[in-house]
Design a protein that fits this description.
Chain lengths: ~120, ~300
């Protein structure tokens, strides 16, 4: 009985968060992408930035040649730093990166028009 | 003596304060909520309660066994409660610092830090595997001294309740005298932040003085706003993954260890440790950040 009530309370509270409008999926601009990457990835200093379509993510090249990947996650971003030799595979309007993580084997970033620096970084 | 469980009485207040904080977040535009994140946190809180209930008997039995071998007879007096509360908070500091510096304990505690949000639901995002990681060991000295288990559990519950309200961005700074002695939302925001400056700082439960005494205090700065979560944020809201992901990683690393020394480091080294180059411990991250910051200024 207590367990059932607790589950109900969890559902009601979560529903209240949703009902109050906390269900956004924000977009990045260039400044926000730099801020997020430099703030989340210690020592990363952003150079070029390529925003995903509709600002739903970004890939950045650091001054040291490494890359930073920002992926949408709820109302936040997942940030991953990739070494310079990471193959960035751009095909059919999507940037595909193999991350080989248990819950994130590959990342796909919609990117219809990648900038020149990103095209040059392709394998 | 039978004492009530203060947490049971506090639950309605927890719910009311969460609703109030949500309203304030909406109204003031300060702080953040996300329904997916909050749902995960609340589910983790419920799961933690169930896990705690399932293992409470074993913890109580061990506590009573240690208490039977006590060094002193601590009486049921007001000063004993006060002393117990302070020493329990010191034990919490020791546990909490270890939970951030030893991967075995971190695997259990990481759950509490796995949200990129910092609100009152984050306070309820608690471990499911605390018993498995043996975190109750840190309370045993209190029983050995002679504090009755019921008194210790009562003080631990009060400690837990205190820590609820500090998980908020709605409160900036408390009065200076309070900030000097007590753990506050400002101090604990630092603790939940992944900014290199803030990593592995402010382990206090109730009294921030422990951090000041043992050299782990860092004040929140207005020019370095905290970014919450863990260094490698979880790519899933799945509560099961949140609860067990680090244990899975430990098992994989242990299975692939090539020497007893590596196995030890993988299990009991600091989180992010690995042999040779490429470690991502808090100390390494801080050093890298300091080098980059110096380069920027130079």
């Amino acid at each position: 009985m207590m367990l059932a009530l607790s589950i109900l309370a969890v559902l009601l509270l979560t529903g209240a968060v949703w009902a109050m409008g906390f269900r956004g999926r924000p977009a990045l601009d260039e400044a926000a992408a730099r801020d997020e990457a430099e703030g989340r990835l210690a020592g990363f200093r952003a150079g070029e930035v390529a925003l995903a379509d509709s600002g739903r993510g970004a890939v950045l090249r650091g001054l040291d040649g490494s890359f930073a990947l920002l992926l949408p996650f709820g109302d936040s971003w997942l940030s991953r730093r990739l070494p310079p030799e990471t193959p960035l595979d751009w095909r059919d309007g999507s940037l595909n990166v193999r991350l080989a993580e248990p819950m994130l084997a590959e990342a796909h970033l919609p990117l219809a028009q990648p900038p020149l620096w990103l095209r040059e970084a392709r394998p | 003596m039978k004492l009530p469980d203060p947490v049971q009485y506090a639950i309605p207040a927890f719910v009311a304060l969460i609703l109030l904080e949500m309203w304030l977040t909406k109204r003031r535009g300060v702080g953040r909520y996300d329904w997916r994140d909050a749902g995960t946190s609340l589910t983790m809180g419920l799961g933690s309660t169930v896990a705690g209930a399932l293992t409470a008997g074993a913890v109580l039995a061990l506590s009573l066994w240690v208490w039977e071998h006590r060094l002193l007879d601590v009486p049921w007096a007001w000063w004993a409660f006060a002393l117990c509360f302070v020493l329990d908070d010191l034990a919490y500091y020791a546990f909490h610092r270890t939970a951030h510096r030893v991967r075995w304990f971190w695997a259990s505690h990481v759950i509490h830090h796995s949200s990129q949000h910092y609100n009152l639901t984050t306070a309820l995002r608690q471990t499911w595997t605390g018993f498995f990681s043996l975190s109750f060991l840190f309370s045993l000295p209190l029983f050995l001294i002679g504090f009755p288990p019921a008194m210790v559990f009562f003080c631990s519950a009060l400690n837990l309740i205190y820590q609820f309200w500090i998980h908020t961005e709605q409160i900036g700074r408390m009065p200076r005298w309070f900030e000097a002695v007590m753990n506050t939302p400002s101090h604990h925001r630092v603790h939940h932040a992944v900014n290199p400056r803030y990593l592995d700082r402010n382990f206090a439960g109730v009294f921030i003085v422990w951090d000041k005494l043992f050299g782990t205090f860092e004040a929140e700065r207005d020019d370095d706003r905290p970014r919450y979560g863990i260094v490698k944020a979880l790519p899933s809201f799945n509560p099961l993954w949140a609860a067990f992901h680090e244990w899975v990683a430990i098992a994989k690393d242990a299975a692939s260890a090539r020497s007893p020394r590596e196995l030890w480091g993988r299990l009991f080294g600091p989180p992010g440790w690995q042999p040779g180059e490429g470690a991502e411990t808090s100390d390494v991250i801080r050093a890298r950040w300091e080098a980059a910051t110096t380069g920027k200024e130079g």
